[in-house]
Amino acid sequence: GQASYGAVSGGLRVTPGVRSSAWFHSELTIEHLRHVTGFVPQDDIMHADLTVRENVTFHAEMRAHVTANEEVIKQKVDRVLKDLGVDHVENQIVGDAMKRGVSGGQRKRTSIAMELCTEPLLLFLDEPTSGLDSSTAHECIVSLRESAVHAGCTVVAVIHQPRFETLCQFEHLILLGNGGHVVYAGPIGQLRPGVPTTLERYFMHQGVEFPARSNPADVLLDAVQAQGPDLARAWRSAGIQPQIAAYPDLHRSVFQRHAISWIKAAGLCIRLAMTQMERRGRHVWTTMCTVILGVIIVCELMKASEGVDKVIWFMQQSSFGSLMLMLLVGVAAQRIFGLDRVTRLREAKAGMPTLAYFIGKDCASLIEITVYSLAYTAWYSWLSGMYVKPWELFALVWSFVYVVYGLNHILAVTLSPQAAQLTSVVLSFVSFATSGISGGPSVRDMSKMAGGRAWIVPAVSPLRWFFGFVLTKQNRFIGESDRNLLMQSTYWPLWYLGYDAKFYKDCRSGFAELGQQHSMSLRDEWQHGRGWVCSTMPLLLLGVLFRFVAALALFLSTYGHTSGWTAFTTTQGGATAKMVGYGARVLGAFFLLLFLVAEVWVIGLVFTDVADALKAYEPSWL
User: Higher confidence at residue 430 or residue 243?
Assistant: First the structure.
């Protein structure tokens, strides 16, 4: 793991003294190697539900040169898979702890292949043999060496307790003692029977003995632990200078790699998300069956006779049905961004545009939204006895699920999986309680609370718009006398909920009554009883606003983990570091919440003009 103590000092230079005419004879730095460097993390971070070939191909396409075509990329992938010895399992699922896949050594070599397929000039590996037995680790390093030689790549690896045969696969070794002091930095030498290597000869000169039947690598580690300070002083006093190879004048093109276009990156993410959705089809079908079961239970428990009682029961039925739908699809929506959190960070560090990733995953999720909406609409239209036209109900349900997915995108990006699911359930009940239909405060009352500022709470409640639309459409099919009785009902009067019958026929927009000569805010509309919702446009707009906040949260989260701001957002280390990290996260969450409130506030104050503009583009069947 990363050490949280000590101070970072010194610098890292690239072949000191080498200059490039392409940079006006300036000295090369680490920044110039950014686009030609690969990094293999200690953990095997990849998509567990993709095959070996699909994981490698995705990385190859994501970081391919703009001129590389499909055939060229395929040839690169074929060569790397063969060099690393995983071509015979290329069509097997990688798997994870919950799903059986390839072996640990094959998974590690797949992780290496994901970087080698991009043809880096320099490849860093963090403990590539961790978690592997000595035989598998040796095979992994041998495959890595052969593939790196074939690709002309320089490999720098951190390795712990290897077999000496594995250690000798490397050409040079830097051995560190306690406190990070250099104990040795030089060639290892060739492994020949009965002949000490260059590394062994140096430490034998320092008094280290190598027993006949021991692993020299283990002997060196024991010596470093016992005599670390003495060996470090001996190395400094030896004054051995590293040998620097002579390189020709380097040109800018050697270090430049043109990334793929933003549109192509979004297309790759859409294809990736659709493949994952196909492999996770069991979860989609389980959620769909649960939705259907919930509809059956709600509709069978809440039936009544004709007349006013039926309308009142239908109001309860639709409210509980929409709450059930929000709970179920909210948990399902967590899978879109919640399952690939660590993989997303690795891909972002490799150059994947964050916005392209978000749009690709979100576009693919529209398939799930459509499946759940069709299931709910078909069964609810059949069992509920409602009079709303099926295509109107489908448009409403689709828009509602679209909003719920957007809300849960925010939670999945900003919270841990457990916290996101719990928060999703809590917000569903909060949305139900503030929708004006649950026996709590009505929309009219909430628009008057907190000095007239509390209207924003039901404005961001998906259930408020869902119920308002259903009630508005259902009222078209009840008689005038029943409507008047319903308005005066002692159990659930519509005028109390904020639905005044005298404005029902003037309903033209989901947010505002556009027949006025001047614009009215949402607060004013709801205070005057104009709570009718005749369009799905409010839900669609709310879904877009949620996605805008989710995309911003994803960008900030990714940038915070892949840039120098990591020091301010981490929650590891000492007490001060943890306080700063949690403080930064709370501040970021507050900023996102404030941003969402500001969006809804501005739109709510002037929305009649917005709705009037959108009305021209709204299909009549909505």
Answer: 430
Q: According to DSSP H, which parts of 415-493 are helical?
A: 417-433, 443-446, 456-459, 462-474, 480-487
Determine the Cα–Cα distance for residues 275 and 35; give it in Å rounded to an integer: 28
- In eight-state DSSP terms, residue 621 is T
Average pLDDT over residues 536-546: 87
Burial class from Cβ neighbours inside 10 Å (0-12, 13-18, 19+) for residue 401 reads buried
How many of the other CB atoms lie within 10 Å of CB of 290?
18
Cβ(496)–Cβ(521) under 8 Å?
A: no
Rounded CA-CA distance 276/99 in Å is 14
The helix (H) or strand (E) run that includes residue 228 is: helix 216-238
Is residue 392 a contact partner of residue 400, using CB atoms and an 8 Å limit? no
Q: Terminal CA-to-CA distance of the chain, rounded, Å?
A: 55
Distance CA 126, CA 517 (A): 68
Q: Tell which residue, 322, 327, 337, 325, has the closest CA to residue 411.
A: 337
Instruction: Supply 316's token pair.
Output: 């309860």
Helix (H) or strand (E) holding 173: strand 172-176
Q: Per-residue confidence at 367, pLDDT binned at 50, 70, 90?
A: very high
Give the contacts of 560 (CB within 8 A, at least 6 positions apart): 566, 568, 569, 584, 588
What is the spatial distance between Cα 21 and Cα 11, in angstroms, rounded to a whole number? 23
Distance CA 399, CA 403 (A): 6
The model's pTM is 0.80
State how far the Cα of 342 lies from the Cα of 141, in Å rounded to an integer.
Answer: 25
For the stretch 189-236, pLDDT in tens is 887 777 788 888 888 888 888 888 788 888 888 888 888 888 888 888
Bridge partners for 155 per DSSP: 123
Q: Among residues 121, 183, 182, which one has the least CA distance to residue 152?
A: 121
